[in-house]
Amino acid sequence: MRPLFLVAGLVLLLLRWAPVPSLALAPVSRTITVDQRGGGQYTTVQAAVDAVPEGNSRWVRIYVKQGIYREKVTIPSQKGFIMLQGDGHWNTEISFDAHAYDMLGIANITDYSSTYNSATFTAQADDFIARSISFKNTYGGFDRPGVAALVGGDRSAFYDCAFRGYQDTLCDFTGRHHFRRCIIEGAVDFIFGFGRSIYEDCTLLSNMPASSRQPGWVTAHAAEPGSYAGLVFKGGRIVGSGRQFLGRPWKTEATVVFFQVSMAGIVVPQGWDKWNNAQDVSRVTFAEVGCRGPGSYTDGRVPWEKHLSYREVQRFVDIRFIDDGWLSNQPW
User: Fold this and answer.
1) Side-chain-facing half-sphere of 105: CA atoms under 13 Å
2) What is d(CA 302, CA 120) in angstroms, rounded to the nearest whole number?
3) How do residues 288-307 score in pLDDT, each as one tens digit?
4) Which residues are bridge partners to 267 per DSSP?
5) pTM of the model
6) pLDDT by residue (tens digit) across 248-282?
7) Residue 302 and residue 164: Cα distance in Å, rounded?
8) Is 35 a catalytic residue?
9) What is the pLDDT at residue 141?
10) What is the distance between the alpha carbons of residues 269 and 252, in angstroms, rounded to a whole number?
11) How many CA within 13 A on the CB side of residue 2?
C-alpha cells in the first residue's frame, strides 16, 4: 500500500503548487488588434473603441501592440465589457499633452470640467479592464492639472499598468475599482476623486522636484456623506523625489487608508494636510496601519489622523470593500 500512498502524496503536492486556474466565467468574444505600423485592423486605439457597438455585453479584447500612441482615447458609457491590453507598460503607451486652463476660483467638483477634459484616457463605461499598458499626460508645466487617466465607470480593474503625469495624474472619479501592481507617478494630488478603490502592491512614484519648498500630496479624496467611498492602499510602496503629504481631504468624509505600505523618507512627518486652515476634518478618515520604512514613523502625525486597529482596518482592506463577485467574473 505504501507506493499508493506515495503516489497520492505526490499528486497532492503537484496540485498544491500547480497554477490556480482562472475563476473567470466570461470568455472573450473577439480580439481587435491595434498596430500603428499597420499590422492590425486599426492604427489608433480610438478607432478600435469606435468599432465596438453601443450596448456591448460580451467581452471584447483590444490588443494594442507596442508603440507610443499619441491620441486622446475615450470609452463612452454605452460601451462596456472592453479589455484593453498592451505589450507591457514599458512598451505600449497612450499619451497626450492636454491640460486644464483655468484653475482660479474653484470651489467644488463641478468646476473641474476642464481638468476632466484634459485626460489622455477616459473610461466612463462599467465593466472595463486594462492590462500591461501605460497612460501618460506629457504636459510639461507644473502650473496646471493634466490628467493621464480618468476612471468613471463601475467595476473597473487595472493590472500591471502605469499612469504618468505631474498634477492630478489619475482621476479615480466614481465607482469601484481595483488596481494591482500598477505605477502611479505624479507630484500634486496625483490620485484624486470620489472612487471606492483598492490599490494592491502598487508603486506611488513622486516626481516632485527635490528643490521644491512645497511638499506635494499623494491623494485628494472627495467622499460625500453616505457614499461609502475611499482609497485603500494595500502593500506596495511610496518612493521618488521631493517631499509628499500622504493626502488632503477634498470633501467632508474623505477616506484614505495605507495598510502595510513601505514609505520612503519623502513622506513628511505630519503625514496629512488640510485643504485650507479652516477646513473641518472631524469626519475625515485618514489612517495608516502596519506600514514600514523611514516615512512611516507616526510620532509627528497630525492629531486628527485616525488610529485604526488591525481588526478595524479589515473592513477596508478586505476585497469585499469593492467586490461583490465582479472580479471573479472577468476574463483573463
Assistant:
1) 2
2) 35
3) 999 999 999 999 999 999 99
4) 244
5) 0.89
6) 999 999 999 999 999 999 999 999 999 999 999 99
7) 29
8) no
9) 66
10) 23
11) 0
